[in-house]
Design brief:
The protein is α/β, with parallel strands linked by helices and 228 residues long. Helix content is 32%, strand content 23%. The protein is built from seven helices and ten strands. The protein has an eight-stranded mixed sheet, sandwiched between helices. A two-stranded antiparallel sheet has the order 5-6.
């Protein structure tokens, strides 16, 4: 990619945009993880060897943390740290986390200002951002072009079971580290199982590692985006 990024303001959030004038371009909205910000994943726009035109957006989360990082919704950091020490990553499948509905509203407003047709929109995220990407896809009025779930987890299983079948056939790309200490691999498998049971089109790419994005994920994701 040779297009220079620019900083824009959409629905009250700062966003890094990599513009693309081609009307047939794919629009990818990429959401960072807890404690990062819009700059964290922006290098993917250049690192992913996508051959088709892509218009990229990397929004900043609305929650400002004590150390200056951003988030989509607050988490109980102490509970996550205790789960890590116990070797039992947190299970978020029982209910929607507090603050997720507010983040959903913020991101829907951002998507409204971007104005991309659902058929050319890919929702992508890492960790907490992946949770938001799935949530937005589940609740979208129309089926989006795809969802990218990088080191995500199953959130609010009952809602996934109720809404995912309504988006049967939706393409998804999922990756997860086999020894992820923050969002465990078994919960990633549980999410894959729910999406496949609902008729979504995709599978989980397992890599040997922790909470991150492995080189083999970058290569596979580029090919997946080219196929949208």
């Amino acid at each position: 990619m040779s297009v220079s990024p620019k900083l824009v303001r959409l629905a009250g959030l700062d966003v890094i945009e990599f513009p693309e004038k081609d009307p047939k371009a794919l629009t990818v909205v990429c959401l960072h993880g807890y404690g990062a910000d819009m700059r964290d994943l922006a290098p993917l726009a250049a690192e992913l060897a996508v051959t088709r035109p892509v218009r990229w957006f990397f929004p900043d989360g609305p929650e400002v943390l004590d150390w200056g990082g951003k988030a989509w919704f607050p988490i109980d950091v102490a509970s996550f740290e205790e789960a890590q020490r116990a070797g039992k990553p947190r299970d978020l499948s029982r209910a929607e986390p507090d603050g997720m509905a507010d983040a959903r509203a913020e991101l829907r407003a951002v998507l409204g200002e971007i104005g991309a047709p659902a058929g050319s929109l890919v929702l992508m995220g890492f960790s907490q951002g992946a949770m938001m990407a799935v949530d937005l896809a589940l609740r979208a009025e129309e089926k989006v072009a795809g969802v990218v779930i990088l080191s995500g987890t199953l959130v609010d299983k009952a809602t996934v079971e109720a809404l995912a079948p309504k988006k049967k056939g939706l393409p998804f790309f999922q990756s997860h580290g086999s020894v992820d200490p923050i969002l465990g691999f078994p919960q990633a498998l549980a999410l894959e199982k729910e999406l496949k049971a609902a008729g979504w089109d995709g599978s989980l790419l397992r890599f040997e590692g922790g909470h991150g994005i492995a080189p083999e994920v970058v290569a596979s994701l580029a090919a997946w985006l080219d196929a949208r």
